[in-house]
Write a structure and sequence with these properties.
Blueprint lengths: L1 E5 L6 E6 L2 E7 L9 H15 L15 H11 L7 E2 H8 L3 H9 L12 E2 L16 H11 L8
Parallel strand pairs: 4-5
Antiparallel strand pairs: 1-2, 2-3
């Protein structure tokens, strides 16, 4: 396992690589200074995202979770940059309750790269698994949606 912490406009983010795939991304948390080609590539892509020159990530990912958690993460990966869906939209797609989708979104181990910030509640923002780094989770979600121009409903 290799761990590297990078600076982002939303605070320090720690990335974890295991067996050739990104398995975690979290704001705050324990700092790491490992240097691998994959962690460097992830840092570059995240920097490009925040610079506005990248709208999607091209990284090997592995969600260490149940088949359901992986299915929800796959559904989130399909949400285009700058767009949003609701927990209910994903629930219909997977034929499960929206609350279960919300819990799986909250358990997303790779926020930002797997864009759980693009999933909203039927009557509001919903939560965000990217809590930390000195910024509340929902605040961070709003900032990411604004960055992507998906925040017309929030402004």
């Amino acid at each position: 396992m290799s761990v590297a912490t990078i600076d982002t406009p939303t605070g320090p983010m720690t990335l974890t690589e295991e067996n050739g795939a990104i398995t975690a991304a979290m704001w705050g948390g324990p700092k790491g200074e490992d240097d691998t080609p994959l962690l460097r590539g992830a840092a570059t892509q995240i920097g490009e995202y925040f610079a506005g020159t990248r709208t999607g990530f091209d990284l090997p990912l592995r969600v260490n979770g149940s088949e359901f958690q992986q299915a929800v993460c796959d559904a989130m990966l399909a949400i285009p940059y700058g767009e949003t869906v609701t927990y209910g939209d994903i629930a219909k797609q997977l034929n499960v309750p929206a609350q279960a989708v919300g819990q799986a979104c909250g358990g997303n181990p790779i926020p930002l790269i797997i864009p759980c910030h693009r999933v909203l509640g039927a009557n509001g923002l919903g939560g965000f698994s990217g809590d930390g780094g000195g910024m509340a989770g929902v605040e961070l979600k709003v900032q990411l949606l604004r960055h992507e121009g998906a925040a017309g409903l929030l402004i």
